[in-house]
Design goal:
The protein is an all-beta fold. The chain has no helices and eleven strands.
Length: 123
């Protein structure tokens, strides 16, 4: 049983910042890479950012590179997404995700998903 719970979404004006959190269950959190995805209305789910099990290696979609930062605190079983310089096109439901395999990098397949948190950026 894997439980991922996102929080921190909300309404923000363009140019503003928001910090999302994803709390994970289990005692083996530090063995897994983690990722953030988003899905806007009428669009397919898209990759946003990923981080390895240690928190050293990261990877970002071109659309958010330089604006978003993924990080993790293994002692708290939590992964974060710091979002700065937000744009209206960032509006979406944001999901955190975890692969089934331990020590997997770069990640090509995610198997467990949170419920999502809504981020709305107004112009």
């Amino acid at each position: 049983q894997v439980q991922l719970v996102e929080s921190g979404g909300g309404l923000v004006q363009a140019g503003g910042s928001l910090r999302l959190s994803c709390a994970a269950s289990g005692r083996t959190f530090s063995r897994y890479s983690m990722g953030w995805f988003r899905q806007a209305p009428g669009k397919e789910r898209e990759f946003v950012a990923a981080i390895d099990w240690v928190g050293i290696n990261t990877y970002y979609a071109d659309s958010v590179k330089g604006r978003f930062t993924i990080s993790r605190d293994n002692a708290k079983n939590t992964v974060y997404l710091q979002m700065n310089s937000l744009k209206p096109e960032d509006t979406a439901v944001y999901y955190c995700a975890r692969p089934s395999s331990e020590y997997y990098w770069p990640v090509k397949q995610y198997n467990y998903w949170g419920q999502g948190t809504q981020v709305t950026v107004s112009s």
